[in-house]
Amino acid sequence: LHPNSAGVWMVRSHQVNYRLGAFLEDTLNIETYVKEIRGPLSLRVVDFLSAQTNKVVVNCNTQWCYVDPDNRKPLRIPLEISNSFLSPKPPY
Description:
It is a single chain. By secondary structure, the protein is mainly beta. It has a single domain (about 10-85), classed as Roll (Thiol Ester Dehydrase, Chain A). Helix content is about 10%, strand content about 50%. The protein has one helix spanning about 80-85; strands spanning about 10-20, 30-40, 40-50, 55-65.
């Protein structure tokens, strides 16, 4: 938990897109970033890339919801938390 945090994160949904095949001996690189934050919701992207071609093999989008741990109601994500998560999309 963030020291100033009043909430906890819960997964709301996952979307997995299989774009290319990967095989047992293939090396994959993983890149992740927060794409969007709006109110209590955060969209995190995870890309699995072929180390040989740098092409996306699998793309995952996970929507997280920031909630009050006592009543599980959504909370607006505090600015200090959202600022620490937001970063530019990796260049590929």
